[in-house]
Amino acid sequence: MLNLFQSHQSRFFNSLKFVLITLLLLTVSSIHSSVSSLEPAQKSSKKAIRAFSVAYKYYKAGKLDKAIENFQSFLENYEADPLAKKAKEYLRESGQGDDIRVVLNDRKIMRNAFKMPEPKVLELAEKELEGLEKLYKGLEPCFESPELWIYFYDSQARYRKETKHITSGGLFSVKKSNLKEGELTGQIQWYIPRQGGNKDRSVRARAVIIHEGSHYMNKIHFGQNLPSLFEEGIATHNESRLNTDFYATTRVTVRQRYEAEARNGLGAIASLKGFKKFLNSQRGFGKGDRMITRWYSYCYAMVDCLAEGKKWETPSSMGEVFSEISKLALKNKEAQLKKKRSTTQATLRSATTLLEHLVKTIHGSDLKTFHQHLVHHIKTNYKQR
Q1: Are residues 381 and 264 in the same domain?
Q2: What 8-state DSSP symbol labels residue 176?
């Protein structure tokens, strides 16, 4: 009986020993696999491995600014190293593209609750900006070396605290610029709305990047001189043409929303006097809530009629509008660099003067005729909702 017990005990310990050895081998294999993923078959230099390890350490610690700085430094010094591919991957995971940087605040909530990690936002931004670039194709830029930062906040409260803007759903601003060196750094700030489903959040995210990205493209190609009515008119027009998705809650597109609002509020600009008052107005007529939406819809209608109005004898396009504004912007840039007074600067800064110039140059007409065409354009093509 004792021998039988000892025999069972021996078999048990042998089995346990086998299990422990198997687990040890699997652990070693897993560690080797992880290391192999960071160290490709082609051998890296010791200096490259040390430099990569420093950047990776910051990445794992969540110190993304330092991680990005060190990964970029690694690529500058070891571009041909086998670890360069991994460095590029970790840069995107940290929110850094070629000339776009994404910053999430709060990062944990954005990644887990809203399912919007840095690479996803970066990919979305790159796609939408690529679409915008096609609209500005062929134009000589005022700033040849632009870069863009995108800040997404997890709540409206955090967005308002950081931007100090209460009535805007998104914001573009210039962080720094140097006309002589052709350098421009812009930033887009936006918050994720908690109401609505993922579909509407996705549509809204696209709309914000296209709209605010249009301001970024305007700054690159037209400098910092466009009057706000044209800034918003171009941004809303671009937004309406590139983002054709329906909002799940309202079942309308961005374009339908702008056009319905302009049609519903036509009475305020139906007279030439009312239209001229609009041309000299501030954002939202200096008010909030509904008047901001109404003001944006008028900006949209003005640019839409100028570029795509059907009553003009000679058809036009946004490309032609951009081309004429670009000519003014480049003349103004040249004057600024020579530190000379520029008549085009005054033209660019006044909505009325710029519109008169474009109507005359593109359509050979005047402001009164444009207003008549605008009213007809809104009545004929925009539906009330």
Answers
A1: yes
A2: E
What residues contact residue 269 under an 8 Å CB cut-off, 6+ apart?
275, 278, 298, 374, 375
Q: Is residue 281 part of a domain?
A: yes
The tokens of 378 are what? 């809104």
Q: Are residues 90 and 102 in the same domain?
A: no
Q: What is the pTM of this model?
A: 0.85
- Tally of residues, the chain: 385
CB-facing half-sphere around the CA of 204: CA atoms within 13 A? 18
- Asked if the structure places residue 196 within a domain, the reply is yes
Q: Parallel, antiparallel, or unpaired: how do β-strands 145-153 and 183-191 relate?
A: parallel
Domain end, chosen from 153, 187, 218, is at 218
Question: Do residues 370 and 282 both lie within one domain?
Answer: yes
- Residues 201 and 69 both lie in one domain: no
State whether 253 and 268 are in the same domain.
yes
H helical segments located in the chain = 2-38, 46-60, 64-77, 84-93, 107-112, 118-135, 156-163, 198-222, 228-242, 254-264, 272-279, 290-308, 318-337, 343-349, 351-363, 367-381
Kindly give the confidence (pLDDT) of every residue in the chain, 385 residues in length, as a single tens digit, with 9 standing for 90 and above. Answer: 434 334 544 554 455 455 445 544 444 454 344 445 555 457 899 999 999 999 999 999 999 999 999 999 999 999 999 999 999 999 999 999 999 999 998 888 888 888 889 999 999 999 999 999 999 999 999 999 999 999 999 888 999 999 988 878 889 999 999 999 999 999 999 988 766 667 777 888 899 999 999 999 999 999 988 999 999 999 999 999 999 988 877 889 999 999 999 999 999 999 999 999 999 998 888 776 778 999 999 999 999 999 999 888 877 899 999 999 999 999 999 988 888 766 666 677 899 999 999 999 999 999 999 999 999 999 999 998 8
Q: Are 368 and 255 in a shared domain? A: yes
Residue 311 lies in a domain: yes
**For residue 139, what are the CA distances in angstroms to 60, 319, 326, 354?**
42, 9, 7, 19
Let me know if residue 25 belongs to a domain: no
Number of domains into which the chain is organized: 3
Structure tokens at 198: 């993922």
Residues 89 and 101 in one domain: no
What domain range is 86 assigned to? 44-94
Q: Can you tell me the distance from the alpha carbon of 48 to that of 43, in angstroms, rounded to the nearest whole number? A: 10
**CB contact set of 113 (below 8 Å; sequence gap of 6+):** 154
- What type of residue sits at position 148? L
